[in-house]
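Hey, I'm writing a tutorial for new members on how sequence and structure tokens pair up, and I'd like a real worked example in the thread rather than a made-up one. If someone can provide the structure for the chain below, I'll link this post from the tutorial.
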Amino acid sequence: MNVLVVGAGAMGRWLAERLSAEHAVAVTDIDPERAAGVAADLDVATDTGGQYDLVAFAVPMSTVETATREHAGRADAVIDVTGEMRDTLAALRESFPDAARVSTHPLFAPANEPGTIAVVEDTPDDRTNRILDALTDAGNELYRTSIAEHDEAMETVQAKAHAAVLAFALATDDVPEPFHTPISEPLAELADAVTTGDSAVYAEIQGRFDGAVELAAAAERVATDAESVAALFEEVTE
């Protein structure tokens, strides 16, 4: 198939590389130089206009609506790897009303592949199935889910988890290594991993998914007397 990958960031590069093994891929981006660089690195084409068999969106959540409108109608099949299902599928339905549509969320950074990919098959067909096949051929596992189940889960595994780790990093001090415990050491390592990651990605997640406010409320409950804290442990383990 002729596939257009919209977005030449880390996820767009990863997707273009995976699909180029079996399909003719072109890349486009709001930054033409970045698209040209990815195309040269992967030996694929850059977008020259026209129609494709499938358009794949690998853009930030905040730009999905703009990107889908810009490329509306350029294919009869679309897929995305944005990491959010509700608003993304709404945008795909609006700009590609008669197309085959599948939304995916790789639950890993490209460097950590293979992993699990969440999938919502809105109106799948053979073309979207071939894209999913290319992803499983790379060793990834598909987890078919619903919009609601996915987005609710992301509030916990992304928004709340990232906020908790960032809060830990903000509230703690560096200590000599011998003082670390089996609990504090992995938390410190997680804090290092999160705070050295792409802050724009983490900000987008916090902007889209609820979680930080609930986390702050939970932390306030912990910041009480010892008797109340003991009761919270019992609440969690019930």
